[in-house]
Amino acid sequence: MSLSSIRSRMLVIALLPALLTEFGMVAYFTTQTLAAAERALHARAANAARHLADALPYALVSGDEMRLRALLQTETENSQLAYARVTDADGQLVASAGDTLRAHQPDMHSEQGAEIRLPATDARRDALLDTLAAPAGILLGHAEVGVSRDQISAFKRDTLIHAALLMLAALALTGALAWRLSNRLAGQLRHVGQVVGRLACNDLTVRTQLPAQGEVGALAAGVNDMAEALQAHRSELEKRIREATADLAAKKDMAERANHAKSRFFAAASHDLRQPLHALSLFVAALKARNQQPEAQTLIDNIEASTAAMELLFNALLDISRLDAGTIEAHPVHFPLQKMLGDIEHQFSALAAEKQLRLRFRPCDITLYSDPLLIERILVNLIANAIRYTDDGGVLVACRRRGRMVRLSVIDTGRGIPPDQQESVFQEFVQLHNPARDRSKGLGLGLAIVSRLGRLLGHRVDLRSRPGHGSMFSIDIPCGDACLIQPPAPASAPGQIPADALVLLVDDESAILRGMAELFDNWNIDLVTAHSAGEAEQWLDSIGRVPDVIVSDYRLPDDTDGIEVISRLRQKFGRDIPAILVTGDTAPDTILRISRAGFPLLHKPLRPAKLRALLTHLIQQARAVAVG
Known about the structure:
- The protein has 628 residues and is an alpha/beta fold.
- It has helices at 6-55, 57-62, 65-78, 125-132, 150-200, 214-290, 294-325, 337-354, 372-388, 446-457, 510-523, 533-543, 562-573, 588-597, 608-627, and strands spanning 83-88, 93-98, 109-117, 139-148, 333-336, 358-361, 367-370, 394-402, 405-412, 461-466, 470-478, 502-506, 526-530, 549-553, 555-556, 560-561, 579-583, 601-603.
- Among the domains are: 6-155, 2-Layer Sandwich (Beta-Lactamase); 328-484, Histidine kinase-like ATPase, C-terminal domain (Heat Shock Protein 90); 502-627, Rossmann fold (3-Layer(aba) Sandwich).
- It has 15 helices and 18 strands.
């Protein structure tokens, strides 16, 4: 039993004083009893000696040894003496009784003696004194007696045994009483502890069942009061939490509705704005192909550049939508970093020189393991952002190995970002240094794309910045193995679209149909245009041909879409005709649905060269399968 428990402490507190008290009392009374027994022994011996001194004078004077021995024997037996003896005045032994051999062992006997003298008054004195001529009061000898100490030893032994038994009985009684009291107190405290433990486990309905008496009762009553207060407080908190949860749920619902409304607005606005931009880009491409006047070429180039700038802004919105929809997948491979940095340096060197900035790339002869296309997109966004917001100094791209990771950093000497705004810059449409919303500085989506790409790849993106001193954006990428780098596939020469190829275009915008017709005329490719699937079927039936490729807009009138149009035409002609979906819609759910359908997707405004390359690939692939 541990001494730290209440029971053990109570037992020690109860038994230790009792033990000391009992030991002291037993020792005192035992000592007193033994002393009284010793005094009684000495008194008995002294009384026996005096009695012999009174009884022996005449027998000693008369020389009656038989009488002397008889008197000594009688006193020895009556007074329980060990021995008794009589010596004359010269100390010579006259008579004795008992064990006189042990008379000289003082450790075994207690001795007492008395002088034997003739009494001064006696009726027989005259004749005897006359005969012996002995004067009264003369010293006749000595009477000596001895009492055995064996009785004292036995008495002492019995007394000590009784005292020890008494102490043990008292200790047992005290221990039992203390044990019972400690059990009761420990049980009460254990009960209070169990109640407190259940309260700590969030069971606020439990209460102590002890009477409110004494200190433990007061403690139990205090625990009950605390439980009542906790239960009331929890009920109040639960009420507040329910109210706050309901309020948050309402606000969340409002925010989700607002976010959905915003998404629908951006999707609709993006689609509606991409339609005329798409038609414009087609007309610009057709105009550029037909232009024969050098003085008009500059004007056409400016229009094309403005269209390309608008396309870049729309593509940033598209990237956000694709990342939110989860249609972008990472394909990690082992690739060398230095080659990527060389390509990016070539891409941005002219832009940095135009702003008179130093753009430096430290040599990084290291292999990474990640998706090179997405890593390049992250670096392009970070470097473009650094150049855009740096007015003096330069931009440094560096890497440093940290164990099995490589930290790739883009460091600039630009305006910097305040600490309280370093998290918000990764949100959409946040631009700290573009209050006028200058479109030449982008839409504020570059860092939002970087953040989403970092999460997609599982790479940590870090920002350190000081206002007025510049910023450092870093991304941690796993190291790769140079032995596992796949050699690049040899670039195949672009093929030609067969002269007898037929392309079907379905779109509800007449301007887009006219622009595509102009473009396909320049390419010398047969094109059938239609506003709907029914119109497309009529045109194809009239010419009696099956299209080699179907190009359809996703969003069409009468609640139909391009997926339904392609499925309907494939079912009509009984073959899986290659198809391309074109859309200006950037809603994440739309992108996800098209991705699950498995059709190639081009976003408006599309690049004519990209469309032609995709058409060429699909037609050649389909005819190769048919021939095989």
